[in-house]
Amino acid sequence: MKSVKDTLLERRSTRRYERQSISQSNLNLIYAAIRNTPTSYNGQQFSVIDVSDQETKIKLYELTNQKQIKTCNRFLLFCADYNKIATIAKAKEIEMPPFSHTADGVMVGIIDASLAMMSAVVAAESCGLGTCCIGYARTAAPKKIAELLKLPKGVFAVCGLAIGVPREINDLKPKQSKELIIHSNYYRTDDMTSDLLEYDNRITQYNITRSGTTSDNDWASHIIDYYREAMNYQMLDALRSQGYDVIK
Q: Which among 127, 44, 129 has a CA at the least distance from the CA of 78?
């Protein structure tokens, strides 16, 4: 098993997997790490759909166009979940406030699910497995994915995670410098343009020289293009269809 340091600092996205299954002991570790995730109020406002059925994975691939979903051994869908607390509130005749209809309620569910996914990433990577976080599981076809995986009202997909035995080890992507990520006591007030341009150039050089498929993509244009694409997502409609009528 990898050390904590190696697990965190050598993590990279894996998009090609062997057909080999994940051992039950490794799965149990991943499940336990997920269950022990810190959550807001200990409310555990999340659930995980563990997809092992190949036919279902292929359908998810067809909806998202993310091939790693159909080639990984297990695909985990991390969801915000207020269905569980609503169910016990009904059983105990406790009036349920419309917390999930607030921006904070939505954020709490997203944060809990995201923390749980990172717990799974660390556990899986420590076992020598490969992982890939898949945001398109949230955005590509949220209503169809909710229907396919039978998500009840109060539950919506936040992010997916492909897990499997890696077929390849990709190059480690450059990340922003400590000076751009870690701010001391307050958000830095000097001009960070030069630091950002230096990072943008490092990403360009990485994309040109990396193993596998290369490109001349920089960082800024590539990310902003993603933002432009994301402007077409109808996430509020998707949230409302799952019972999240955000009012404030």
A: 44
Within 95-183, strands assigned E span 130-134, 155-164
Q: What is the pTM of this model?
A: 0.95
For residue 158, give Cα distances in angstroms to 86, 91, 111, 114, 215. 19, 27, 9, 7, 29
Residues 6+ apart with CB under 8 A from 88: 94
Tell me the pLDDT band of 209, cut-offs 50, 70 and 90: very high
- Separation between Cα atoms, residue 54 and residue 83, nearest integer Å: 27
The values of phi and psi at residue 157, to 5°, are -70, 135
**Helix (H, G, I), strand (E, B), or coil: what is residue 46?**
strand
CB under 8 Å to 80, separation ≥6 — which residues? 45, 46, 106, 108, 109, 110, 112, 113, 155, 156, 158
